[in-house]
Amino acid sequence: MDENTLIEAIAKSLGISSREMTAATSLTNEIGVDSIEMVKLCRDLRKTFHCDLEFCEVKEADTIENLLIHLSEKSRAS
């Protein structure tokens, strides 16, 4: 998985343009993702990347870069 793939998946889940996002983009502060959207995003990322991702992991990661690192680590552990 690469940064662009993750950005596209997040944009699709949230219904926003991927052009608004970079690796440093904060899901909560810059995009304004609330807890309901975070739950949906977590569910969509689980389905897209076939991983066991928890809500708190997405929330704690906050930036796309941190989320990418976390997802990469999870996929290596599987």
Short descriptors:
single chain; 78 residues; mainly alpha; Non-ribosomal Peptide Synthetase Peptidyl Carrier Protein, Chain A
What does this structure look like?
With 78 residues, this protein is mainly alpha-helical. It has one domain (3-77): ACP-like (Non-ribosomal Peptide Synthetase Peptidyl Carrier Protein, Chain A, Orthogonal Bundle), CATH 1.10.1200.10. 62% of the residues lie in helices and 0% in strands. The protein has 4 helices and no strands. The protein has helices at residues 3-14, 35-49, 55-61, 64-77. Helix 1 (3-14) crosses helix 2. The longest helix has 15 residues, at 35-49. It is globular and about 30 Å long. The two termini are 14 Å apart. 17% of the residues are buried.
Q: Can I get a quick summary?
A:
This protein is mainly α and 78 residues long. It has a single domain (3-77), classed as Non-ribosomal Peptide Synthetase Peptidyl Carrier Protein, Chain A (Orthogonal Bundle). Helix content is 62%, strand content 0%.
Write the layout of secondary structure elements.
Blueprint: H1 3-14, H2 35-49, H3 55-61, H4 64-77
Helix pairs in contact: 1-2
Q: Which of globular, elongated, flat, extended, rod-shaped describes the shape?
A: globular
Q: What is the alpha-carbon Rg in Å?
A: 11 Å
Strand content: under 5%
Level-1 CATH class name: Mainly Alpha
- CATH topology label: Non-ribosomal Peptide Synthetase Peptidyl Carrier Protein, Chain A
- The average pLDDT value, as a whole number, equals 93
Whole-number count of domains: 1
Head-to-tail CA distance between termini:
14 Å
Count of strand segments? 0
CATH architecture annotation: Orthogonal Bundle
Major sheet characteristics? none
Give the uncertain stretches in residue-range form: none
Order of helices and strands: HHHH
Q: Helix count?
A: 4
Proportion of helical residues: 55-70%
Structural class: mainly alpha
CATH superfamily: ACP-like
Domain Carrier: 1-75
Protein name: Acyl carrier protein
Keywords: Phosphopantetheine, Phosphoprotein
Organism: Dendrosporobacter quercicolus
